[in-house]
Specification:
This protein is α/β, with parallel strands linked by helices and 438 residues long. It is 36% helix and 13% strand. The protein has 16 helices and twelve strands. Helix 2 links the parallel strand 4 and strand 5. It is globular, with a radius of gyration of 20 Å. The chain starts with 8 loop residues before the first strand and ends in a 9-residue tail after the last helix. 53% of the residues are buried. Bound molecules: flavin mononucleotide and iron/sulfur cluster. The site of iron/sulfur cluster has 15 residues, from helix 13 and helix 15.
Length: 438
Amino acid sequence: MSDPIFQPLTFRNLTVKNRIFRSNVSGRFDNYDGSGTQTRINWEVKFARGGVGAIISSFVPVTIRGRIMPNYATIDTDARIPFWRKLGTQVHKHDCKYILQLSHSGRQRDVPGIEYDKGLSSTNKKDPLHGFECERMTVEQIQETVEAFAEGARRAREAGLDGVELHGANGYLITQFLSSAINDRTDEYGGTLKNRARFLLDIVRAIRAKVGRDFHLQVKISVTDHNDAFSRTAGAGNTIRDTRKVCQMLEAEGVDAIHASTGSFFPHPKNPAGEFPIEELVKTYDTLISSGLLTLRNFLLLRGRVTGKLFTRRWDRARGDFDKIQGMNLPDARKIKQSVGIPVLCTGGFQDAPVIRKALERGSCDAVSIARPLIANNDLVKMFASGVDSPPVPCTYCNKCLANAPENPLGCYEESRFGSREEMVHEIMTVFDPPPFR
Ligand SMILES: Cc1cc2nc3c(=O)[nH]c(=O)nc-3n(C[C@H](O)[C@H](O)[C@H](O)COP(=O)(O)O)c2cc1C
Ligand code: SF4
């Protein structure tokens, strides 16, 4: 086939059969203690069966303190290796690669759980959206966390997975170091771009020292912070100019690919770009009320008829044109691609084959990663392969999946895509088949 979507992509240490990666999607599928379950395996196999070349996992915490919420499978001890091995084996049966996203939340923790009170961060300032509190990491804590990332990479390798991705995007701990709008340190981990990138580069070096050069290592990074999306006084944060330099440093340290994302916090009007799902949020945001100093205020604002509308309007304004959601990060990805020699993946709204083909043919990126349109249509890639360029019942970018994720099983919650609410619920619940206990 001459279709660029179906050309294999060869990285230094890994070949993927086509140019579509399932992007990271977190859901509360596992046990409270971080041990994985059959439900997560069922979830991932849906996408492998649907034809994606590789799956990039959801947020996998390298320490318990670094999780966003309980019930996410972690990689913080060797006891987790057999679960990930089992998951990888199931995914591999469909000729699909599996890349594990090594992650640390820093201060951006939706539900911290019982083990730790405050999150760790580059700063001791609370996050401005929810008011999640944190403490500034000491150099010793930084070193321990660097080691935790390296141990996570070793465990992923021992589990037979195909590579790891460092979650350096979307406002989590690595962003909290990289971003000029968040990092207010005065030591060697703050100030200049080189200093702010030190934490990430230390992690890359520690991983390379532990697993060698022949294990795939990619970094997801927010190319542009857009930190001032809600408040002009907040500071814009990192720009493409900054991130180009960081990516060049990463390439020099032996990183194999860059995954281009956007935004210094998550969710952000530009990520995942779409509607502000206010009706769903009113039902689910209560899960976060006890987590942050501003969460009760936010909940009341969301519930208020006038304030809810104002919030939605601000979100829409910060997002920009709804028609430009598909491929929204391509201009950023293209600039990164022009600055490095390693492959660049791009995330953000991809759903139609012609758009993806054009991006690949123009050389804006080497592959695309897809989250929501694959949640909506798990078999999107098989559709493309059969000559269908656009899914008949597309993802509407309503973001209801995202709003439900803290409280309900991950899945597509756009009722208009289904014959009935019962049909929608039935589809969501298929993730429990086969069941975790038999
Ligand atoms: C429900 C949901 C969960 C997500 N979880 C993660 C995550 O764990 N790690 C991550 O890097 N990005 C996460 N993202 C962001 C996606 O990977 C993706 O980059 C973003 O949604 C834009 O792609 P899309 O337009 O194809 O959805 C999540 C997005 C959604 C909608
Ligand atoms: S709920 Fe469904 S249609 Fe809405 S953004 Fe998520 S996957 Fe797309």
